[in-house]
Amino acid sequence: MKPTIAVIGGTGAEGSGLALRWARAGYPVVIGSRSAEKAATVSASLGERLPPGSAPLTGATNAEAAQAADVVVLSVPYSAQEATLQQIGDACQGKILITVGVPLKPPRVSVVWHPPAGSAAQEAQAQLGEGVRVVAAFQNIAADHLQDLSWEPDCDVLVVGDDKAARQQALELVRAAGLFGVDAGPLANAGVVEGLTALLIGINIRYKVKGSGIRITGIPREG
Amino acid sequence: MKPTIAVIGGTGAEGSGLALRWARAGYPVVIGSRSAEKAATVSASLGERLPPGSAPLTGATNAEAAQAADVVVLSVPYSAQEATLQQIGDACQGKILITVGVPLKPPRVSVVWHPPAGSAAQEAQAQLGEGVRVVAAFQNIAADHLQDLSWEPDCDVLVVGDDKAARQQALELVRAAGLFGVDAGPLANAGVVEGLTALLIGINIRYKVKGSGIRITGIPREG
């Protein structure tokens, strides 16, 4: 029995790409949104893109989605992170929360900016307390790539978090999403993982490409 | 006429690897050390490893090396950075200074740690003033790889700095060293470039490899 995944903010481009990939891999997914109606509409429309045999992809309010899930994925803009966690914090206790967001400071989104705690993921951990095992992952994958189920991934997913078992479970979900994950250590390293996204945005601009990414070299790569 | 490069701290593993590569590419290199005698011994021994037609590789004190050079490369442990820059600061005015070092906090060298200014490179810029154009590069390349002139590089060099022309010149030196450089934007991004090294050290340990690195995907790659 595969765990149920809530994708909070799953109506956005990044979150819905992840939701699609996990449902395809057989993980029941509940997309969360501030509006239950929007969640229902988006999940129905995403469901039409899924191949036969996929797990159910449904919609709910953010709080209901978090409640229903074994693993909670937070995919909201950084500006909405604190308020969203306030809504779902209780429902996350005892669970793994995976943050995929990146704190960026418009208009200079290609310049690294860290919140006072060092990273959005560390802020989430401080807000939620030790009852929630926070992991950061997927920060460096372009939403367009996640949405395109036929994309052949050339970039890796760095996974950081203080609990090793939680990192392992997140790495399993990276594989399920069709991507290659790399265990990049404790949550104190999240600022680098998040900050890399600003570098990649700048590289996209400077090299006139979409969706540059990173790959870790010199390690064994399965399949 | 190729510019002369001073490699301050060039008797170390990282610095001497770079010195070898630039001399091989035809750039006159002066290795700097606190001891003129050590600089002379090391440069003579490195010279024996160079193919015919290489540029001269000589040794001097740090201050003399910086004085003699067009481009100054700082390759000293972070703990020696401030004192070394005090010795060579005057000689660096009007020049490009490339920092290759990484601030690490032993014993937890696989956990990202930033100095108060955000990065060693930003600290160097603050100490040297606006008369020196500071660029950070080569942080993520293992010294063993730099030393091995037959190594086929699979990892990239991220180059950051506030002056675009200085970044361009550093990218030229990356190419001359036989590596692929990527323009990663302003010096404010140096903390991510330096911090990546801590992630890679942890990855080396966790995946039981030496010299993991990073590669930027999705951009055009010459040759």
Question: How would you explain this protein's 3D organization?
Answer:
Two copies of one chain form a homodimer. In chain A, helix 4 packs parallel to helix 5. Chain A has a single domain, classed as NAD(P)-binding Rossmann-like Domain (Rossmann fold, 3-Layer(aba) Sandwich). Chain A has an eight-stranded mixed β-sheet, with helices on both faces. Chain A has helices at residues 13-24, 36-47, 62-68, 78-92, 120-128, 143-147, 164-176, 190-206; strands at 5-8, 29-33, 57-61, 71-74, 96-99, 133-136, 156-161, 180-183, 213-217. Chain A is built from eight helices and nine strands. Chain A is α/β, with parallel strands linked by helices. Chain A starts with a strand and ends in a 6-residue tail after the last strand. The first copy, chain A, is globular. Chain A binds chain B through residues 110-112, 114, 154-155, 158, 182-186, 188-189, 191-193, 195-196, 198-200, 202-203, 206-207, 209-220, and chain B through 110-112, 114, 154-155, 158, 182-186, 188-189, 191-193, 195-196, 198-200, 202-203, 206-207, 209-220. Strand 9 of chain A pairs antiparallel with strand 9 (213-217) of chain B.
